[in-house]
Every structure is written in C-alpha cells, then in structure tokens.
Amino acid sequence: MVKAQAMEALTKALGKENVITEAEDLLCYSFDATADMPSQVPDVVVVPQNINQVVEVIKVAREFKLPIYPRGSGTNLSGGTIPLQGGIVLSMKGMDKIVEIDADNLVAVVQPGVIIQDLNNAVAPFGLIYPPDPGTVATATMGGSVSECSGGLRGLKYGVTKHYVMGVEVVMADGTVVRFGGKTVKNVTAYDMVKLFTGAEGTLGVITEITVKLIPAPEAKKAMLATFESLADAGNAVTEIVRSKVIPATMEIMDNVTIRTVENFAKIGLPTDAEALLLIEVDGIPEVVEREAATVIKVVEKNKGKIKVAKDDKERDGLWAARRSALPALAQVKPTTVLEDATVPRSRLTDMLVALQNIAKKYNLQIGTFGHAGDGNLHPTILTDARDTEEMKRVHQAVDEIFKVALELGGTISGEHGIGIAKAKYLPLEFGEQGVDVMRKVKQALDPENILNPGKMFK
Amino acid sequence: MVKAQAMEALTKALGKENVITEAEDLLCYSFDATADMPSQVPDVVVVPQNINQVVEVIKVAREFKLPIYPRGSGTNLSGGTIPLQGGIVLSMKGMDKIVEIDADNLVAVVQPGVIIQDLNNAVAPFGLIYPPDPGTVATATMGGSVSECSGGLRGLKYGVTKHYVMGVEVVMADGTVVRFGGKTVKNVTAYDMVKLFTGAEGTLGVITEITVKLIPAPEAKKAMLATFESLADAGNAVTEIVRSKVIPATMEIMDNVTIRTVENFAKIGLPTDAEALLLIEVDGIPEVVEREAATVIKVVEKNKGKIKVAKDDKERDGLWAARRSALPALAQVKPTTVLEDATVPRSRLTDMLVALQNIAKKYNLQIGTFGHAGDGNLHPTILTDARDTEEMKRVHQAVDEIFKVALELGGTISGEHGIGIAKAKYLPLEFGEQGVDVMRKVKQALDPENILNPGKMFK
C-alpha cells in the first residue's frame, strides 16, 4: 500500500479529482486488452491535466520509490500497461488537447490523451489524414499508439506510427523535461531520440506532447475481394502484386478458419469454402486507382483467384466490415483469444501460413489466421480457454514455435503489438543476449532507478 | 605515435596490405569535405575486408586505448570523420559488396563501403530505386550516408536516409556484434535501435551491414523552372503548391547571388535579374505527372512567377545541371566556402530567406543561398577566405545568428549535414543542456570508454 504521505503528496499536486483510489475504480487499471496475462491492481491512478503535474507525479514516485505505469486507453496487446508491481498508474487521458493543426506544414501537435480517430476527424476538413490505422483507432490514444508504435492496415503503402512521429516532448525519469524533433521534414541534429521514444512502451520517459506528420487524403479508393482455393496461390498473388509495382493501401488476408467464423458471425456472404481470401484496396488519384485495380485483377486471375470489385461505397464498407469482424468473430468462439503478430518478409508469407496450419495440427489447437499480408504481418489467433490448463500448455508451446518459425523465415517476433510482458522472454531469440544487453544499457542509462513501467520488455 | 605493438597487432589481424602508415597517405585522412575545420593526421588507417577484421581492430583499439574514427568517402559536411585525437581511422571502403537485392521484398542488403550510386545502378534493372539522394551520391558510401542520415533533393516526397534503413549489423565499442531490424516492413520488437544507429555519426557503433528499403522507380517525370521577382513570392509559391496537395519529388530554390554565380560559371541561360528561382520536379505515373504539373503552373503564375516546363530529357538534364552547379559555382568565387544547412518549417521559408539577406548585410558578407525549399532545408553558403582572420570572425558571428534565427522560426540547426565538430557547440541551443545530457547518457552507456569517434557531437 502506498504510504499515506505519498497519497497526500499526489493529492496536493494534482487535486483530489485527479487521484483515483477507490478499489472498484482501480480494478479497471489492473489489466489491458492482452489475453493470458497476470493482472495487478495499482495502488493509485493519477490523471494529470498538464505537464507540470506529470513532473510532480515523477517527483513523488522517486521520493517514495513507487513504480509508474503510463497508460492511454489500455487497448495494447502485449501486457504493456499492466501495473505489475502496483504503484502508480499514470493515465494520460486528462491531457487530451489537439494543440495545433498546421496544414501548411502538414503537421499536427497533440497531447498524448487525444484519441487517434479524433485527430483524423479534426484534420479531415483540411483534406488531410494521419495514416497510422490500428484496429483500435476509435479508442486508442495518440500517446499509447506512439509508445507502442502501432501498425495497422495501411503499413505497406503508408508505413506505421514511427514514420509519422516528428517530435516529442518527454518527461524523463529524473523529472527533467526535454523536447526532440519538431516540424521540419529534415532533422539530423544528433541522435534520433524521437524514434527512440516511439515504441519504447513508456519505459524510457513519459511522452507529454507529440508532433505528427499528416498527408493529403487520397481522392479515390477501390476495394476488391479475391478468393483462392489454396494458401499458396493467395501468398503468390500478394508477392506478385507488389512485384508488378502496385503498392496497395491495404492487402489483408483471412484463412479458411477465419472466413468461416466471420461468416458464421456476421452473415455477409463470404465464400466459406475458400482456402484464403484477400481484401485489397488501392487508393490515390482516380487515374492511378483505375490502373492499379486493373493490375491487381490481372495478377489475382493469373494466380487462380476469383476477384470481385466493390462497385460503390456501400459494397466497400461491407468488405471492410468483414475484415473488422475477424477478431471479434474469432473472439466469440472460445473464452480466450491469444492474438499474435509474428511478421515475416512478404515473400515468405506462404511459408508462414503453411507453418501455422501445421502448428495448429501438431498441437491440436484451433488457430484462425488473418492479418496484413502486404506487410507479412500475420495475426495467428489461437482460440482457447485460459481455465483449461492442459490446453494452455499446448497454446504456449504453439506460440513458442510460431515465433521460432517467424525468426527462421527472416521475420520478427513483433510486427505491431510490442513486447511488454508477453514477449519479453523471446527477445534474446531475435537479438541474442548481446543485442538485448545493448537495449538494456539504454534503459539503465535513462531510467537508472527503473521506475518507468518496470517489469516490461526485459526479463 | 601508436605503439609498435599496436601496429603489429593491426598488421597481424588485417594483413600488411590493409594497414596504411605512409605519411603522405595518412594526410588524405586528416580532413573531410567540411570547410573551416581543424585537421589532424591519424596514426594509422586500417581497411578491414570483413566484420571479423572490424572486431579485431576494436580489440586492438581497446587494448592500446586508441580512438577509432570510422570513415566512408569523407564527403561529410560537419567535420564528422576528422580524426581529432589521432589514433585509428577505420576506412570501411574495403567492405563494398552488395550482399543481396531482394526485389520481391523491395529490399537490398549492402556492406557499408558500397557507393550510393552503385546501389542505384544495381537495382535499376529491377525497376527499383533507393531514393535518398544527397549531392554526393556518386562518391559517398552507404555506411557514411546512413551514419550521417543524409538528406538530399527528394526529402519532401520521399523522405531521407532514415526512412529507408530497415536493418543494421553493428560492431559495438566492446567488440560484440549485434543485429537489429531486418526485411520486414513492420517491426516493433523493443527499442528502435536501427534508427538510433542511423545518424549517430559513428559514435555508438561501427555499422558493418545495412538493409535498406527500395521503391518502384517513378515512370514519368516533369521538370519545371519558375522565376520570381521577390523572395516572398517564391516562398509563398512553395507553401501553396503543397497546400494544393501536390508533393513534388524535388522543389529547389536559388537566390539571386546563387543564380548570378551559377550563370557566370556555367553559361546556361539562367535569368540573372530574377530574385529567386524554383526548380520543381513532379514524378509518378504519367497521368499524375500531367495533373500535378498543371497545378504547379497555376500556383506559380498566381504568385507572379514565370514558369518554363522542360520539354524533353535534354532540357530537364540542363535544369538539373544548373542546380548541381550551385555549390561548385559558389565555391570557385572565393577560397573558402562555409556551407550550412539550417532548416525551418516550410511555411517559414520566406522569413528565413529574408533573414539570411539581412545577416549578409549586417556582417558585410557574401552569402549565396540555395537548397531544398520543399523541406525548408536551406543551404546558406558564405563565400570567404579562411586566411582572412578578420572576415572569419564575422563569418562565425553570422553562422551563430543563422542558427539562432532557424531555431526561433521553429527549425533545427541541422537538416542534413549532422553535428560532428562543426555544430557541437550549438546543440544546447536546440535541446537545452538537459536534452543534450539525455543523448550523452546514451553515448556513455554504449561507448563508456569513449573510443568511437571521440570529440564529435558533444562538446
């Protein structure tokens, strides 16, 4: 339990209204969106309204040796915001202002509590978009998605969060406030600290302001649905579309398990006998869209796929509703949904899909796979029940093997969900102990007392 | 002088042919392309042929407490490769293999000694390009340009070097070998160490292999020359082109001093009475190029500019020859050319251009300004004579003021040349002592004995 003195200091600094101590309220901060994780109720949740209050929280934490767990909406998928050691949850949702939209420089400046979709709504009247597009765009915060370096559906053409973060203001573990980067497209002034804090999962500093790049909204879009009788044909089509110099805005895949589950859930007329389907969207100016769609159709047909082009916005929305149903549909099959994000080079997509089928068979598990085929970023989703200890043992073995295969194929253990608690043990597989040690040195240099999100990323 | 033992150890590890000790050879490594810098002859230059030899060099350096100065072609512009404390220059030009071109994944893997243009030549048959395009593309190495995070002419549309580095292999200061990143578009596995080593100027580790992203080559290009009677009109045209949702591949500016000097040097028919000119190139598929060119013409004319479209490749090449002549033309006016790269948000371009004119007047100096207008990345170029100590005093005052103004306008002290020796003293201006201290902690954590490129970046 936090000492009464610490609680008093927090209340004095932030006001009673920004300090949460009721047991039933604290419970909401004991977990995040990740399955199969330990939960832990924090001692206190604070909701600073400005940077000075963040600095004050850090001072109190240091004085009373309490860990700090920064948190946005808690939609993260690797256990990154769970307050493993109790202490203080630092909710950034009180700092939720869009500070500036600077259309001439194609940038926006936001506080960390801004919801991603709210930023997009605010820049839309300027004809601009903020491209990073994680599935949780309507609930996740900018601070959380920058700290986790969220990916999403548009990674292939538009990149991910780190490609759009131009500047950050950060409160360091010693309470000092620093700013790196800014509004200039070019900036090579010493180390790229902006990128170091992006994806650092709140372990190196607390982000209190973010400058992001915006881009002109594409004028036209065309969505297509391609179905295949074999995984290999689908995988080959993905590679060949890119080889044809068409970079779709999104190129999503669903395997048969996912197709059948989604259809059963949403009744939208998906072909349940298809072994795989691709949802492809090209965007840009109308001439480009026409041209690229024609290439996609040609490649899909060459690879023995059947393709259907959405003829209007309604059909397009229907296709994307199907894609967005994938996770909720799979999640309702069994009580526990273990969602992974192993990622391979695009050309190894077929190998990975086949390996996932074999792993499902080997461990006698139900695995539905969907994901961002254009990025080689798959979401094998194991449908299970956390209360079934025997099956969970097989789930853990299967997850181990999924990461092993992804690395063997030249991939990475996390394409877009981050490390948190869930993947800390796999880090040495990817980097060796020596590589992990390099990262640990950076952590120790910037947070020597280990007060920021302790217990995450490193075992 | 390096102890005989150290020299013996280096010769044993690398072979006599890869260890340079002749005084007249060493002299070539005592300086780089930066004007107005101290020079220092190293004790020895080594040219490792593989990563094991790099590791051996680090072992010797640690044993004999010798500093290591990694170097590519030495074309860098902030004194970054000058061996300030003598010791070992580590030339990476012996490791110059293109390891792999993986067209299906749109990536290439190269050793650090590969010349940028050689990579572009090698990927051209696949219809691909490596977009970063510094002025020294024909001579600079991949290792050097990654370590300096080179910019160039295509930053606005295509970004700079850091946007294309996907993976690195690095020998750390303690001799361990680590690999970060790889071929996957998405990768959020712990800290973004790839970006930390990119632009670290060889102070954190020695890069021995680089994985870079490639993109499809644009099918068509159109170059245009716009001339203006006022700097403000030119600056406003730049902002309005982007506001019209056209992102040109390049958008270069030259002021009147530069125009007259280039014309005098190259006799290519530039309008010597124009106050500013813009060289604009749009690229993409032919339909897009036509459409974007039409928008550019409309915006230029609205802003009282005259515009000429290159009607064929020959005229296009002529325009770019003019742009490429800017620095050599300015450089032949006076013995010393102090080239800066202060960068501001694009919307503040006119303010910066006017400020530069005023600074030239105030300090009674000849300053020609050209640069990447679309990025807000200007190259004010002071034409002077390093032997004229009185004038050099004014040059240094002018440079101080240039950076001060750039920061006041929300810019940065280095858009693309890096810090090295030249700008170390300005770092606290941008980040405060506390921000510099964060970076220094990272340096100390990864190179505690300060053997990698000592004397750079930090005062």
UniProtKB/TrEMBL annotation, chains A, B:
Belongs to the FAD-binding oxidoreductase/transferase type 4 family. GO terms for molecular function: FAD binding; oxidoreductase activity. Residues 38-217 form the FAD-binding PCMH-type domain. PANTHER family: GLYCOLATE OXIDASE SUBUNIT GLCD. InterPro entries: FAD-bd_oxidored_4_C, FAD-bd_PCMH, FAD-bd_PCMH-like_sf, FAD-bd_PCMH_sub2, FAD-linked_Oxase-like_C, FAD-linked_OxidoTrans_Type4, Oxid_FAD_bind_N, Vanillyl_alc_oxidase_C-sub2. Keywords: FAD, Flavoprotein, Oxidoreductase. It holds the Pfam family FAD_binding_4. It comes from the Bacteria. Its cofactor is FAD. Coiled coil: none annotated. This is FAD-linked oxidase C-terminal domain-containing protein.
